[in-house]
Target: GerMN domain-containing protein
Amino acid sequence: MSEPTPTGPGYCPYLGLKQNRAIRFSSPTPEHRCYVSGEPVDIPVDQSAFCLSRNHVQCPLYMGLTLPSIPATVSSSGATTTAPGGLRGWLRTLSPRDRAIYALMLGMLALIVLVYAIAGWQALTGTAPVTGAPSPITVAPPETATATPAPLPSPSATATPPPPTPTALPTSTPSPQPNPSPTQEPVIIVPTALPTQPTGTAGVAPSPTDNATATPSPTVAAPATPSPTGQPAPASPTLTATAAPPPTTAPTAPPQPPTAVPPAMPRTPAPPAAPTVQQQRLWLYFGDATGTLFVPVQRLVPVEDRKVATAAINALIEGPRNGLERLIDPQARLLSIAINNGLATVNFDRPPHLNGDPRGLHSIVLTLTHFETISRVQFQVNGRNIGIDGSGPIGRPVVNPLNPNNLPVDYAATEFLPTYYLANDGYHTIRIIRMVPKTRQVAEGTVRALIEGPGIYEYAVQRTIPPGTELRAISINQGVARVDFSARFAEASDRNAAVRTLVESLTTLPRVSGVQILVEGRSLAEWWGEPYGRVYPKPLINPEG
Model:
C-alpha cells in the first residue's frame, strides 16, 4: 500500500525485541516485535520485505490498520516460561552472524580504549620536556636583540652628526618587542632588522594586527642603516626619501597604540540568514469529481527550512488543480505542528475540514503519513483536541477500499493490492485498494485484480485492460517485472492508459522498479510499435509542477 520508493532508514522505527524495544537485529528473527501501538505485537508479515527494508512505510500495521488482538507478551505461554532471561538469554537469541558482529564491535572498542590510554600516558609523561623547551627559545632572541643595536649606533653616528637621535631609535625598537608580544613574536621581528632591508620589514608589518604598533619602529631604524653603507646606491635615496616622514613618527611611537583601537571598533551584527527554500515533490490528496474517492497527486512544493509537514498542509489549504475537489477550508490557518514518537499534533485556528466532511481530515492524515516520522495525526482547534467520532488521534485509512468479499481489515489475514484506474476526466489516475485473502503472489494478484476491473467504482473510473485478457505469466528479475498477456491485451482502445495503469500499479510494490510488457510471449513492440517495447520505469503519480 506504499506510494513512492521510501527514503531514510532501512528499517521500521517501531521494530524491537520483545524484551527490549530499543534493540533490533539486522536479520529476521521470531524475537522481533512491532511497537506501533505501544505494546509488543507479533509480526506475521515478511520481516525482510517490510520491517527490515525501506518498505516499512507500506506495512499495513504501520499505516494504522487493525492490530492483532493477542499481544506478543502472552502469545506463547511456553515462550515466557522457558525463555532464559538476562544477558545469557539474550545471547542465546542471537544468530552466529550477530554474535560475530557484537564480538567485533567489542574488540574495536577495546582497541580504541587502549589507544587512548597510551596516548594519555604519553601526554602526561611528556609534559616536563615541553615546558622546558621554551627556555632556550626565550634566551636566544635577547642575544640577537643585543647584537643588533651594536652595529646600528656606529653607522648611524657616521651618517648623522647628532648621536642622540640614532640612540633613541634602537632603544625604542627592543623595548616594545619583549614586553607586549609573546616569545615567538621577537623571533619573527629580529630577523627583519638584521638584514637591513626595508622590503623584508614591510612584508612582516601588515600581517599581525595586534603588533602593528611595534613593527613600524624597526622600519624607521632600518632606513638609517642602508644610508651609510652606500652599497645599494639606487635604493638608498629612495629609502631615505620615503623614510624622511617616519623618523618624525618614530618618536611618537608611544601614541601609536591608538592605532590598535580601530580594529576594536564595534562591529555591526551580521543580518540574520535568509530562510532556505527548496522545491520538493510531496504527496497530496484531494477529492475526485464524483465526491467519493481520494485522488493522489505529487506536487512540486516550496519547502522552507526543511519544514516539509508544514509545507504539505499549506499546499492542501492552497487547494487542488486540474478540476479536483477541495477538501480543506481555504480560510483555515495552521497555528503549529509538533511531531513526537510518530504522532503529529496539528493545531488550526478553525476546523480544517470543509463543511465538516471527514474526508478533509482523512486527506491530511493520508498526506502526513507519507513521512516516515508520522504514523498518526491529532487534530486541534486553538489547542482543543478534535477528531472523527471522538477527539483522539487518527491513523492512516485504507485508500478507496474495494472489498467484495467483506474481508476484515486485518493485515494478518487480508492482502491489500494497489490498483490504479483512469478517472472519468481522462487525466488523473485513482488508486483503488483491492482486498483479497492473504497471498504471497502479490504481483500476480495485483495484475489479476486490475484485469478484473474496478467493481463498484465503475461509475468513477474507467477499465483500461480489455475484458477477457488473460495473464499468461509474470516474473520479477532484478526489480523488473515481465508481464505476459494473451492477445486480447493488444486490443486495448487506449494504449497509453493501459500501459500507464499497469505500470503505476506494479511499481507501487516494493520489489518492482520497472515493467516490461509481452503479448503471447513476444515484445509489445511487435504489436504496437517500437516505443512500447522498452522497460517502463517507476512513474510519478499525477505530477503537478
